[in-house]
Design a protein that fits this description.
- The protein is an alpha+beta fold.
- The protein has helices at 60-81, 144-156; strands at 9-10, 16-20, 24-29, 32-37, 43-47, 50-54, 84-91, 96-100, 103-107, 114-117, 123-126, 136-141, 167-170.
- A hairpin with a 2-residue loop joins β8 and β9.
- It is elongated and about 65 Å long.
- The protein starts with 8 loop residues before the first strand and ends in a 16-residue tail after the last strand.
């Protein structure tokens, strides 16, 4: 058995799960509603506020799908009950972000500002900046996959460079730094 796939997903209070149209799982909770199509070979059973997953055989594909869909459904349940959050730090002189509803405007040292329209499921907030600290962008959503895609898109506007570390990085991310030129070494 897959170590991940054999673990049941417990349902917190306020979260409901329905399996419709074959294998489409719909999870509804206080923070929203998410749906995911599950591979037909994986069987779901909902009993005693737990979702259990079973697979038909020990083929490599079945084993990988077993763990994958259990993890996806677990993330959906956690998302609609607690939600997910990603923090990104803008490191660089003059780097900033302005949030107006779903529209983000970045000043990242280019000749123009970069604008990004967020999906409706993702909420953004710019943390208060004290003098001498880098601006922080906080993204929240119930959908972990969508949140990760949006965060990766934002990071791609100005990836952190290895010499000074300037760019957009995740809070707590460890960057590989390189040594600069050594002047006058003979």
């Amino acid at each position: 058995m897959s170590r991940i796939g054999k673990l049941p997903v417990s349902l917190p209070s306020g979260v409901t799960v329905k399996v419709e149209d074959g294998n489409v799982v719909k999870v509804k909770g206080p923070l929203g509603e998410l749906c995911q199509k599950v591979d037909p070979s994986i069987k779901l059973t909902i009993e005693d506020n737990e979702i259990k997953f079973t697979r038909p055989d020990d083929e490599p594909r079945s084993r990988s799908m077993h763990g994958l869909y259990r993890a996806l459904i677990h993330n959906m349940v956690e998302g609609v009950s607690k939600g997910f959050e990603k923090k990104q730090e803008l490191v660089g002189v003059g780097y900033r972000v302005d949030v107006q509803g779903q529209l983000l405007t970045f000043a990242l040292g280019y000749s123009h500002d970069i604008q990004l329209l967020l999906p409706a499921e993702v909420k953004a907030e710019a943390a208060q900046v004290k003098k001498g600290e880098n601006p922080v962008l906080i993204l929240r959503s119930a959908d972990k996959q969508l949140l990760g895609e949006v965060a990766a898109k934002i990071r791609s506007f100005r990836k952190p460079e290895p010499y000074k570390g300037k760019g957009i990085k995740f809070v707590g991310e460890q960057l590989r730094r390189k040594a600069g030129k050594t002047a006058g070494a003979k």
